[in-house]
Design brief:
single chain, alpha/beta, Nucleotidyltransferase, domain 5, 8-stranded mixed beta sheet, 22 helices
Length: about 625
């Protein structure tokens, strides 16, 4: 439902915006110094984020395969059709039903979310704090504000313990702009609705309020207990003391409360919104623990207040891009697209949007507003074409031409709340090519990670290969070396610990990353050259495993500025390429198949006697 302001109303909005934000901010002028500071802060924040936004977008499935709409959600859209007196112009997508069931408290199992199981396990559902991050053009405001407001007025009471509702307060970037647009949208939907006129005793619409009074066939219910009000305000008008009669807001709805990119990078504006969201709004709600705060927004950057609210886990993340993830840097075909709302945004139209964005040099903006991507392919340290796979059987069958190393990024905690533990086995050849033979990148206990590491090392020792173990010993991580040595003695098999690069004469065991004198992200920038020069190969047989998918997503999440995903995978590469001393063989492996060549090898590929999953 699109409402256009008149020229006079637009002039009033512009005047208000300039008064509130200043002319430069309204024009979108970004303070570059502040932007750099905020982006630096976002780097640190992302490393500890509770919710993996990029992981959710990578695994998003617009069919919502583990979700079935509730009867209430079905009734919701039937009622809205009755209100409008006709069918909708476009079929209702499953994403809208999911949004409604979130609002009505029916989504109680994180596995119903349309992301990978690994991402879903990190989601903690709080029906009183929901962040709807959705693509522009997906009608998030129509469904979550206009429809939901009118539905609440009709029902007067919502299921799943939400209870009776009397008063919603909507906050937008300005009173004369976003707030007024929402008020006019509800008026346009309801004012001439024959069904609503018959259902309600009274309706009242202004540019700041929508009020509904339900009929009382018994004549015994006071008018104040049959009323429902939606009030529309600008974000800077204040929420404290808001009342409908004596009642506080049952819900406060923030609709695109950040004006533009300039406001999103304004420390003053973000601090103000943060205080309103996390203090003023919470204190203004009704008591009893049933007051709700609902965010509806499209992101600007990782550090904007709305985006941080779902990344830090304080708001339940409902992330709905325009379509399933695709590689926009390549030539996108219709078959690559799976739309979130095929009726409104057909696959062919999305492809056309991508092509126009590329021609206009606005692909980054398209990916931000439509696909919710805050990192573009051009910002990534390692582009897709530098991530390459090959069959590792040829390497496994000719180990005499390779040296073997194991790099680790051990966790120091156990249980489901533990960090990722990373263990990678590498083969290097005389041409300084690097082949990953095996990978474990998952949340496992401390004891298990030691077992996996030594099992890997023992396997190659049985093949007459010396294996060096790369283990970080910064801080309390030195305990990992002691733990491994203890288990080596128990097993009766021993392995060497890799030396710090440049410290071959040192008697210290393990790698001190701080001794490199370079920050973690900068170390991976150096290590990433092995990808960019096409010198690193990943195992084909592990390509579809959860561990490898996590590794690839973390590598893709490394930008020129920060890690936007966990850094355990990149750390495994960094240790090998930057932190520890690696000996490359002085001779090549000898093979007998000339049909396929890998750097540093020659001869025939032997595809026998190796199971594709024997290392996994």
């Amino acid at each position: 439902m699109r409402i256009e302001l008149t020229d006079e109303q637009k002039a009033e909005e512009l005047k208000e915006l300039i008064e509130l934000y200043g002319e430069d901010m309204v024009k979108g002028v970004v303070d570059e110094a502040t932007k750099r500071i905020i982006d630096e802060e976002a780097k640190e924040f992302l490393s500890g984020a509770e919710f993996d936004l990029d992981g959710a977008l990578d695994s998003y499935d617009p069919t919502f395969p583990r979700y079935t709409p509730s009867r209430d959600a079905l009734e919701f859209f039937i009622l809205m059709r009755l209100v409008e007196g006709k069918d909708f112009e476009f079929d209702t997508p499953i994403a809208h039903y999911f949004m409604v069931d979130m609002l009505l408290g029916h989504i109680q199992d994180p596995m119903m979310f349309p992301y990978s199981e690994e991402i879903c396990k990190t989601i903690e559902i709080d029906i009183n704090a929901i962040g709807f991050m959705a693509s522009r053009g997906l009608a998030k405001s129509t469904v979550g504000i206009s429809f939901f407001g009118v539905y609440s007025a009709i029902k007067g009471k919502l299921p799943n313990g939400i209870g009776k509702v009397y008063f919603y307060l909507l906050l937008a970037a300005s009173s004369k702009g976003g707030a007024r647009v929402n008020a006019l949208a509800v008026r346009a939907m309801c004012e001439d609705s024959a069904w609503l006129k018959d259902y309600f005793e009274e309706m009242r619409f202004t540019e700041t309020e929508s009020e509904f009074i339900r009929k009382d066939p018994t004549g015994k219910i006071p008018k104040k207990d049959r009323g429902f009000l939606i009030r529309y305000q600008g974000i800077n008008t204040g929420v404290r003391g808001s009342r409908y009669g004596e009642r506080r807001p049952c819900a406060i709805l923030f609709d695109d409360a950040i004006l533009n990119t300039a406001a999103a990078y304004s420390k003053i504006m973000m601090d103000n919104l943060d205080e309103i969201l996390n203090s003023d709004a919470t204190n203004a709600l009704k008591g009893g623990g049933k007051g709700r705060v609902l965010l509806y927004f499209t992101p600007f950057h990782y550090g904007d207040v709305n985006t941080k609210a779902i990344l830090n886990g304080s708001f339940t993340p409902v992330v709905i891009p325009m379509a399933r993830s695709f590689n926009a840097d390549k030539d996108v075909k219709i078959s690559d697209i799976k739309s979130s709302w095929e009726a409104m945004h057909p696959r062919a139209s999305i492809v056309s949007l991508i092509k126009r964005a590329k021609k206009a040099k606005k692909l980054k903006l398209f990916m931000q507003e439509r696909m919710l991507r805050l990192t573009s392919g051009t910002e990534r340290l390692v582009p897709d074409h530098c991530i390459q796979f090959c069959d590792m059987k040829i390497i496994e069958n000719n180990l005499e031409g390779y040296n073997i190393y194991i790099t680790t990024d051990f966790t120091t905690t156990s249980g489901e709340s533990s960090d990722f533990s990373g263990i990678a086995t590498w083969a290097v050849n005389s041409n300084e090519d690097v082949f990953m033979l095996n990978l474990s990148l998952r949340k496992i206990g401390m004891e298990t990670q030691y077992t996996v590491t030594l099992d890997e090392a023992d396997k190659y020792k049985r093949k007459n290969k010396n294996v060096e173990l790369g283990v970080e010993v910064d801080g309390n991580q030195s305990a990992h070396v002691l733990a491994l040595e203890k288990r080596m003695r128990e097993r009766g098999t021993y392995h060497s610990f890799a030396k710090q690069k440049g410290q071959l004469d040192s008697t210290k065991k393990g790698i001190l990353s701080r001794n490199t004198g370079v920050a973690k992200h900068e170390r991976f920038r150096i290590a990433s050259q092995v990808f960019l020069q096409n010198k690193l190969w990943l195992p084909e047989h592990l390509k579809d495993t959860p561990d490898m998918q996590e590794f690839i997503s973390q590598i893709k999440g490394a930008t020129h500025e920060a890690f936007t995903r966990s850094d355990d995978g990149p750390d495994l590469v960094t240790m090998l390429m930057v932190s520890m001393h690696v000996y490359y063989p002085t001779h090549e492996a000898t093979h007998t198949n000339t049909s396929t060549h890998y750097y540093g090898t020659s001869g025939k590929l032997d595809y026998t006697n190796v199971s594709a999953y024997d290392n996994y």
